[in-house]
# Entry
Amino acid sequence: MTQTTSADAPAGLTTTRAPFIEQARADGRLYIEQPYELYTAANHDVWRRLYARMAERWQRYGNARFLQGLETLQLDPERVPRLEDVNRFMAPLTGFRAKAVSGYVPAYLFFDCLRQREFPTTITIRDGEVLDYLPEPDIFHDIAGHVPMHVDRAFADTLVRFGECARAAADRAAAIDDPGDRLRRLRSVITGMARFFWFTIEFGLMKNPGSGELRAYGSGLLSSYGELAHCIESPDVQRVPFQLEWVINQSFEIDHYQPLLFVIDSFEHLFGEVDRLVDWVTAGRLDHVAPGEPAIGEADLQSFLDAAGVA
# Structure
């Protein structure tokens, strides 16, 4: 039977209005299948419209390895992709696979998925009436924004190192005897890791080899029609060289264009900085980052405590 939100409007898999997702959450199922037959014509039309308007901007502002990833994945510009098709192209290259989820993945579980070369992937797609407003990630952000980079070996290995960094944070938390001190330090470490991820994987800029021109490699930029141009062209954006000390102490807000972005030299540079991040976590150098956003939710904190095996 077709699921509907009203007498004449198919529910499909529209963000915030998908009965399939609501039921999965009610059942406590975080990892799910992609019920492809539930996508409606309207859902596919949203994908088509999003993809069509991004194509020119990707060519103009996207990193070369992202563009190569798009070509490798052979995404259909007309229809929401099947994750099994995405994985068929991606897995043989880097071992990464898109893994369907029903909603928010607590921080440790998310990073640990990356360690196992699995990318938690939202399967719903935004409402066609609000293409630029995204209350939460959708499949266009995750597949068209993130996944083309996952076919690149250097980038994929960087994501795995994030997972290893989370493991190091949990191990360090387990070694702290005082519960109050453990919570305070762990919250600081998660904040620093979240800022690093935000300013690289989500909103990173990189110098173009040879010309030195800036190109986007962060998925939050590559999935946003407005911000992709803004991040490169606008005089209102501060674009500063990547420095680990600055990044882990720099707060951010998610509900407007980013006024400050960090520029990395290369993917090899990025991998080296993630290595440094792991070392800094182990040495306790993220135990006292500057206060501010992002706020660390209790589910995120608990996910690390569970991984550490402590209360």
Notes: The chain has a mean pLDDT of 93.
